[in-house]
Amino acid sequence: MRIATFNLNNLFDRFNFEVQLDALPSREEIAAQALKVIPDEDGSLGRTDGGIGGLVKPKPLTERIRLAERIRLLDADVLVVQEVEHRDALREFNAAAPEHGGLGGLYSIVVCIDGNDPRRIDVGVLSRIPLGGVTSWQHVIHPELPDRPVFSRDLLEVDLLDSRFERVVATCLVTHLKSQLIPYERGQTATDRERVERANDLLRGRQAEMIARILQRRRLDRPHLVAGDMNDAPDSEPLRPLRDAPTGLVDGLADPVEEPPYRLAEDDPPQSVRWTHRYRTGGSTSYELFDQLWLDPRAAERQTGSGIGRRRRKTTDGSDHDPAWVDLDLPH
To answer: CA-CA distance, 68 to 99, in Å (whole number)?
Structure first.
């Protein structure tokens, strides 16, 4: 069984219908409010993106086609995804024909639950393995953060069943931890940016801590794993709770293969194949393993391989992340 994780990079959908513009408030009035309907120049309706200020538009067709191509090559039995607008957007992407930027019904099961993110980017699951229970942990509160849920997106728990629907063969927890992004604000100082960075790291660490606590409380008697975009390196301080989890989680991508080998950075190549996200800053390129799969000892004993599906374009190739996977010898 191949279980993979992939950040789909703003797989947005949108309403698109004709309106009477003079019957609506001005663009400026609506743009000041996040997540409100807003008229576009062509007379259709979109909505703002939750505070960044731009108009939410659907993912361009060329990018959807590239994204779908990469997913088909990945050939995962269970694909956990991040940055999906809602269940309908994911269902449409799965059902659409390849020439229309979709997967052509590659997966029989589509899971996505609205989470906590103000931009409405959710986590989800595409599966051709039967699923049992699906649980959202989005309402969990950290003891040191009692006024709001700790997960800025969600933590989904899904049970994978055998083909007879008789027993749970594995459980997968899907998440998308706090971003490292520091939004630009006019008059922002270096001290301000450091403060935001510390707050981001603290929240990401609390999220990782709650994942470890939930697993400890669940006492699962079957193989299980944590998968998703962790927005930090596996050896980072915020992710220490995963490394030190009482249930004994191990990095499933300790020795991944790279398919195909990355050959797009001859001037500034990565030092290892262990990366899924790249970005340029200060004239250099950083390569980070943000997308991860952590296995409990039962799952680790059944692991037969792991890998990263490498992009074929220097910038984005449908997504600014690369998918990662583990292969497990599980009945299905």
So the answer is: 10
Strand runs (DSSP E) across the chain, as ranges?
2-11, 37-39, 45-48, 55-56, 78-84, 109-112, 122-127, 131-136, 155-161, 168-176, 224-229, 250-251, 257-259, 277-281, 284-288, 291-295, 303-309, 324-328
| Distinct helix (H) and strand (E) counts, the chain | 6, 18
Distances (CA, A) of 232 to 63, 176, 205, 223: 25, 11, 10, 24
CA 187 vs CA 184, 190, 192, 300: distances in Å: 9, 10, 9, 49
Tell me: do 46 and 147 sit in the same domain.
Answer: no
Tell me which residue range forms the domain holding 31: 23-57
Dist. CA 205–CA 242, nearest whole Å: 9
| pLDDT surpasses 90 at 323 | yes
Distance between CA 76 and CA 66 in Å, rounded? Answer: 17
My answer on whether 41 and 162 are in the same domain is no
The whole-angstrom separation of Cα 91 and Cα 267 is 40
Largest distance between two CA atoms of the chain: 64
Per-residue pLDDT, averaged over 136-154, amounts to 95
For the chain, what is the mean pLDDT? 87
Co-location of 219 and 254 in the same domain: yes
Tell whether 97 and 133 lie within a shared domain. Answer: yes
Per-residue pLDDT tens digits for 67-119 = 999 999 999 999 999 999 999 999 999 999 999 999 999 999 999 999 999 88
Domain CATH for 268: 3.60.10.10
Helix (H) or strand (E) holding 162: none
Residues 267 and 282 in one domain: yes
Say how many domains are in the chain. Answer: 2
